[in-house]
Here is the input.
Amino acid sequence: MSLRVLVVDDHAVVRRGVVAYLEALADVEVAGEAEHGRAALDHLARAEVLGQLPDVVLMDLQMPVLDGVAATEEVVRRFPGVKVVILTSFGETERVHVALERGAAGYLLKDAGPAEVETALRAAVRGEVFLDAAVTRRLTQELRAPRVGLGALTAREREVLVLVAEGRSNRDIAAHLAISERTARTHLSHMLAKVGLSSRTQAALLAVREGLVPPR
Here is the structure.
């Protein structure tokens, strides 16, 4: 089954480059393009009426009319089945943090290769985490999670944190720990609450920063 992707970036050259990458991938379909967040939301609203929502939105951060952070929040709120992966550059770490807090599933550097793009998209759809190693190093230096949070985790919650950072889905975590998927989700929810974070990606960054797993 094809993975449908909406590409959102105000720079036409960047947008066309990303589209060209996607079109070269097997089983990936470009669902459309948008030059800013408002245009992306309008596209999604029309697609929803037609029953043709994309699986993933590749979202730039700095755009006119409606920027990527605000647009991400709206996509997550209005179209919860659509994942958002941020397209970022090294100078945007603060904005990436905020976008992750607003519900983005992951992030990619704009100069990422086709294989990385495909890996990140498919990980987002599966509910897994893809961390671009170069961006991860920068983000973990600035992660705003309280360090004391890790000490509050149970041994099982710590295991779940490590498995999340390794990119495992809830199903994989459940199988690895020989527990139900529902119990895995409960452990994940408790773990996120204790460390003061709201997404799997933020949790994975925390695990890298604290040395629980190596940067990938």
